[in-house]
Specification:
heterodimer; A: mainly alpha; 2 domains; two-stranded antiparallel sheet; B: alpha/beta; Rossmann fold; seven-stranded mixed beta sheet; 17% strand; globular
């Protein structure tokens, strides 16, 4: 058979220095391409990039806004990390966030008179159960019937999303708001308290960060996850109960996403809104992979994403740039960074050039 | 294994309990300071804001660059205010495309205006109401002015709206004279569950009735203020049902575009929609928000801001009817002028006397008119020629 003109070949492991150089190059390329886009719109790229940074750090309020964006993104990224470590493609964090939010909102709406020290923990547990169950469903079908988890988790997202719409337009609709279909704003009692001006979801996020790091690195269960991820046959051979590990891990993955949903609803939205997940479940997938499924890196990457988002929003109002332009800019930057990850692992070999490490 | 999982969860729950416990502790203030704080909260005095340090934030649900419809109309009002008062461009901060069903996005947008140093924030869409209420407590030094809702705290959170039903009545005259099928369509965000939409439909229907008692007004509800596709489909369904004039109470000009496409007529809303659908629009029911925005900013500059709700109408210049297009019945101009004159001299207030509903009951009393509170919050019926589809 004739050799194709270009083929992709897996690279030998690059040294950390080379990897870092590639990533830096990708970042520079991304900024250059983004800069050309900004120039085409008739603005000064340096001013825009500068505004993204200064807009994120210009005041206490701005930093708080960045942290607020980061809370659910970080928690959701940790959630999918558990599943991805096991090579279980959980594309359903979005739905698991929503289910966690729905379950905890039930208590926020109908048990608002409970003492706060009881109510808030109950809401957290409800979030854990809601998200966990939503993660358990695809895991169960995968173990029992061998269904494709990528499609299964993806589709469950939409069921969860429409469930909110159903509750909003139907049984949970706020009767005090005739001009607008929404669920009632939570009583103060059912809203997360604030520490340093940001709801305590940020403490949840840090606790979970430590938890996931320890769990993956130092516990037997964490080890089991990576064995199942590398090879189910090996896991079975060494006497592990693979199905149980899959069910357990997906419950935890969903449960952590559920906490993100709870924190977003009770901390930030103060109601159950259809935008409670708002795409965070999908962005989390990118963050988890860019962070190489390493909790420490995930922390940094989610911080960078949050700065980009907050900064773009300031750019919109300061320069009158449409919100769509900010999205395009984010897309360009992501394109290069993700593309770079490909080149870290693979390279192109052109036909006729010999000895290219095939 | 299960036990381990359970214990992990329990640990988590306990940590959370501890954390929330800590978060709640607040040092009690001594009685004197507390009294001062209470007074400041209940009765803040807003010192005059010099024109040079005035900064105004505007939260839009759409993008004013659309050039028509709700956000455009509000932005024209802001631009009018800016010219009238004489503010520079960087004294206005706009946040566009802020979804009204995403409280986090709303809060982020408003907080950003506060970061920029805005002292007055106009939140233009109904769905921003609860977030404004929440933030007005957290930022007592910033004034939140919310359009179309009903809440307010009498100090730094007020509500602004107006007697748009006056212009709707006038546009009903144009529609009633124009229709040949005697079926007039009306695409509405909400129905009689909301006084604002029900009142608008009724005023329009009464305008129709005053010149054409045989015509009926068919209402289709979209359940959303901003739903480009749904608004278009609702209009198309009404046209398919035989309606030959399409009026609307929703944010986009799509119902008018649907009318033009089908070769029927329409009555626009928010801005002059004859720009969008010149072959269909008879006239448009319009807001001139600059009347309120100028008034509010001037109040703040003069130090006379009271935090009271604002409810203006045609006499304040807040509500207007666009010029009539050439498509109108020849009688329309005179009849509309006649009714308008009566509204302006106060001899006619639309909801006067005994009004028959479409369920055979009556509302109101001979010799009186519905009061503002009822008009803003208590209209839950339809006028007799209205049919909700």
């Amino acid at each position: 058979m004739r050799e194709p003109f270009i083929r992709t070949v897996k690279r030998a492991e690059l040294s950390p220095k080379q990897t870092a150089a590639l990533r830096l190059a990708a970042l520079l390329l991304a900024l250059t391409a983004g800069g050309i886009f900004i120039l085409c719109l008739g603005y000064n790229p340096f001013a825009i990039y500068g505004t993204i940074l200064s807009g994120s750090f210009r005041s206490g309020l701005a930093i708080q806004a960045v942290v607020k964006i980061m809370i659910s993104l970080l928690i959701a990224s940790l959630a999918v990390t558990l599943a991805f470590k096991m090579q279980f493609w959980n594309i359903g964090a979005e739905g698991q966030i929503i289910m966690g939010a729905i379950f905890s909102s039930f208590f926020a709406l109908f048990c608002a008179n409970w003492p706060r020290v009881v109510l808030i923990p109950v809401m957290v547990v409800a979030g854990v159960v809601g998200g966990g169950l939503w993660g358990l469903i695809p895991a169960f079908f995968k173990c029992r019937y061998g269904t494709n988890e990528t499609l299964f988790t993806l589709m469950l997202n939409y069921i969860a999303l429409y469930l909110i719409a159903f509750l909003r337009d139907g049984p949970w609709r706020d009767p005090a708001n005739p001009g607008f279909a929404k669920i009632a704003t939570f009583e103060k009692n059912a809203q997360l308290p604030k520490v340093f001006g940001v709801h305590i979801g940020w403490i949840f996020a840090l606790v979970l960060l430590a938890f996931v790091w320890v769990y993956l690195k130092y516990t037997k269960q964490g080890y089991e996850i990576s064995v199942v991820g590398e090879s189910q046959a090996t896991a079975r051979y060494s006497g592990m109960n693979v199905k149980k590990i899959i069910l357990r891990t997906m419950f935890m993955s969903g449960a952590i996403a559920g906490i993100a949903g709870m924190a977003q609803a009770a901390g930030s939205d103060a109601t159950l809104a259809s935008g409670v997940a708002g795409g965070v479940g999908f962005t989390a997938i990118i963050v988890a992979w860019l962070g190489n499924l390493n909790p420490g890196s995930i922390f940094i990457i989610s911080a960078l994403f949050s700065i980009l988002e907050k900064g773009s929003s300031v750019v919109q109002s300061n320069f009158g740039l449409s919100t769509d332009c900010a999205d395009v800019l984010q897309g360009i930057i992501l394109f290069f960074i993700l593309g770079c990850e490909f080149f870290i692992r693979y390279k192109f070999v052109i036909r006729g050039k010999d000895g290219a490490g095939a | 294994m299960k036990k381990k999982l359970l214990s992990v969860l329990l640990c988590l729950a306990m940590t959370v309990t501890m954390i929330t416990g800590c978060g709640e502790t607040e040092e009690p203030l001594d009685p004197e300071t507390q009294a001062m704080v209470d007074k400041a909260i209940s009765d803040p005095e807003y010192a005059p804001v010099p024109k040079e340090s005035m900064k105004v934030g505007v939260i839009h649900i759409g993008d004013p660059a659309a050039g028509s419809g709700y956000s455009y109309a509000h932005d024209q009002g802001i631009i009018g205010m800016q010219k009238e008062i004489g503010l520079t461009d960087d004294q206005i901060v706009r946040k566009n495309n802020v979804a009204d069903d995403d409280p986090t996005a709303i809060e982020a947008a408003i907080t950003e205006c506060i970061e920029e140093g805005c002292v007055l924030i106009f939140a233009t869409s109904y769905g921003y109401m609860d977030t404004c209420e929440k933030l007005s407590e957290e930022h007592p030094d910033v004034i939140f002015s919310h359009g179309t809702g009903y809440k307010g705290n009498g100090t730094n959170f007020n509500n602004y709206f107006g007697r748009i039903y006056q212009a709707r009545y006038l546009s009903g005259i144009a529609a009633g004279l124009k229709t040949e099928s005697n079926k007039i369509g009306y695409v509405s965000a909400f129905g009689k569950t909301l006084s604002e939409t029900a009142g608008g439909i009724n005023a329009f229907a009464m305008g129709v009735y005053s010149v054409n008692p045989d015509a009926e007004v068919d209402v289709k509800v979209t359940n959303s203020w901003y739903d480009p596709e749904g608004e278009k489909q609702a209009a198309q369904a009404l046209i398919a049902d035989g309606c030959d004039v399409i009026a609307q109470h929703c944010d986009t000009p799509n119902p008018q575009l649907a009318a033009e496409e089908a070769g029927v007529f329409g009555v626009g809303y928010n801005s002059d929609m004859s720009k969008d659908a010149p072959g269909a629009v008879l006239c448009s029911v319009m807001w001139d928000w600059s009347a309120y925005y100028t008034w509010a900013v001037q109040q703040l500059i003069d130090g006379t801001w009271t935090g009271d709700n604002y409810y203006g109408g045609m006499s304040e210049g807040l509500v207007t009817l666009s010029d009539l297009s050439d498509l109108n019945d020849p009688e329309a101009a005179a009849k509309i002028e006649e009714a308008k004159a009566k509204m302006l001299d106060g001899s006619f207030n639309v909801f006067d006397g005994v009004i028959e509903t479409n369920e055979g009951t009556t509302v109101g009393e001979e010799g009186s008119t519905l009061d503002d509170a009822t008009i803003q919050g208590g209209i839950d019926w339809y006028f007799k020629n209205v049919v909700e589809k």
